[in-house]
Specification:
The chain is an all-alpha fold. The protein has one domain. It has 19 helices and two strands. The chain has helices at residues 4-7, 13-33, 41-52, 55-74, 81-106, 119-123, 135-139, 150-169, 172-195, 200-205, 207-224, 228-253, 264-287, 289-295, 298-305, 307-327, 331-334, 337-367, 384-395, and strands at 10-12, 400-402. The two termini are 23 Å apart. The chain has a two-stranded antiparallel sheet.
Length: 405
């Protein structure tokens, strides 16, 4: 029997730090794009790392699979399972996402946004599908893009389908088998798309081709639910898999001077390798106190708290501000490579500030409403051993914090 009511109301602080690490990687992409093209070893290495930091999105996927599947598995016995899950997801995701789209529509004229009747695909989280060809390159002006919202479509599609699957199956062992099958199927879809000549960008953003990362996180949390003894095995497994995955990714990155998401080798084996590395990072953060102490930094936890807002608004804000520096009196300075880097860092700091304000002045009002949507369970006793096992997962190497899911 599961201590569902207990676990569904908690999360681990170190996972906020992992969110912070993921959003830092995403932001670092844009820093690398504007780094001076100097030939010194330090600058070259920084550019290589920046060009590879798109892996932060994959880390978000694995973490989402871990958190969401954990909640779903622990609450399948709730009498209000679907209503509560979707209400809480709605309050966390929709206000900022749709508020962001409304602001864009209001700024259509000054930002020269050309929707061409395509705004509805963003409303329905379909921006990562084949419904409309070239939707990303044809919709917006050259200095304004929201291509990054594809990853939110992937996660939202996951939220729509996966709860019903977990609710219907319920059994942990059958769910574990299913996650493995879906990981293999996702890899096969990716290979089929690659060798049938599909767009490399579409392979990167298409949910069935990226589901192995979500399933990797789901598999990890289901294995954690197998008990303390199995968690110790996971720690040993992760200690080996994390460095091995990093070495493999370095090998993939060396020929191209970076880890490109559109590299055929990365598409074939790199995406799954990144998923293994991300799962290992999460596992070690939860099972190794020493490793957790390295990751669980206050600054990373702070960034993790605002990571959703940072992710949504960072690219359009950056594009607009960079454009303004070109068309204003700063144009001459912009030819200086160090000035480009400085502008990017300033715009990223500005983005973080906007996300902070959004969370505290806008999103928090909706998040407080989660108290009206708590999981309700039939009266029953929870075996002490089960509670102890789950507590070990929740507290190892970190401190509990109020629920922010």
């Amino acid at each position: 029997m599961r201590p569902a009511a207990k676990t569904s109301e908690q999360h681990v602080a170190v996972l906020d730090a992992i969110r912070g690490l993921a959003i830092l990687l995403v932001l670092f992409i844009h820093v690398g794009e504007r780094m001076p093209q100097l030939e010194s070893g330090g600058w070259k290495l920084s550019r290589i790392l920046a060009s590879s930091s798109w892996v932060g999105v994959d880390l978000f996927f694995v973490l989402s699979g871990f958190l969401i599947t954990g909640i779903l598995y622990d609450t399948t016995g709730a009498t209000n399972f679907f209503r509560t899950f979707y209400a809480r997801r709605f309050l966390r995701i929709f206000p900022l996402y749709y508020g962001f789209l409304i602001v864009l529509w209001a700024l259509t004229i000054p930002l020269h946004i050309e929707w061409n009747g395509r705004g509805w695909i963003y409303m329905l989280y379909l921006q990562n599908t084949h419904i409309l060809k070239n939707v990303h390159s044809a919709t917006f002006s050259p200095y304004f893009k929201i291509d990054h919202l594809w990853s939110l479509a992937v996660e939202e599609q996951f939220y729509c389908l996966w709860p019903a699957v977990v609710f219907l199956i319920k059994d942990r062992h059958r769910l574990i088998k299913l996650t493995v099958i879906l990981m293999i199927a996702s890899t096969l879809v990716r290979l089929l798309m690659l060798y049938s000549g599909k767009s490399l960008w579409m392979i990167y953003i298409f949910t069935p081709a990226r589901a192995d990362s979500l399933m990797m996180g789901s598999l990890l949390v289901l294995l954690f639910r197998c008990g303390v003894q199995f968690q110790r095995r996971l720690k040993k497994w992760a200690t080996f898999v994390l460095p091995t995955s990093i070495v493999l990714l370095v090998i993939l990155a060396l020929p191209a001077g970076g880890l490109s998401f559109s590299s055929r080798n990365v598409i074939c084996v790199g995406y799954t390798t990144i998923a293994f590395a991300s799962a290992s990072l999460i596992a070690l953060s939860l099972t190794s106190r020493r490793f957790s102490n390295v990751i669980n930094r206050p600054a990373l936890r702070w960034l993790g708290k605002y990571s959703y807002g940072i992710y949504i608004i960072h690219l359009p804000v950056m594009m607009v501000l960079l454009h303004l520096t070109v068309v204003t009196q700063f144009e001459d300075l912009y030819s200086n490579p160090f000035w480009k880097l400085f502008v990017v860092l300033i715009t990223e700091a500005f983005t973080i500030g906007l996300a902070f304000l959004s969370y505290n002045l806008y999103e928090s009002a909706f998040l407080k409403m989660k108290r009206f949507f708590r999981y309700e369970f039939p009266d029953r006793a929870v075996p002490p051993s089960d509670v102890a096992d789950i507590d070990a997962v929740l507290t190892c190497g970190s401190q509990s914090a109020p629920n922010s899911l």
